[in-house]
Amino acid sequence: MGIKEKISIVSLSIAVVTNQSYQFRSIEELAEYAAVVKKRCKMVEESVYCVNC
Q1: How many domains does the chain fold into?
Q2: What pTM value is reported for the model?
Q3: Is residue 2 domain-resident?
């Protein structure tokens, strides 16, 4: 019989980066920060959005 477990087939992770709290010096710096925020977002196992986290 087993154990019934609810799992998501699809989840959505949205990473948002703004310049409200930090002034980026280059597009490369912005891209690196966006990648970090995206990785943090993807660590959550459900649909989520992260803003400057």
Answers
A1: 1
A2: 0.73
A3: no
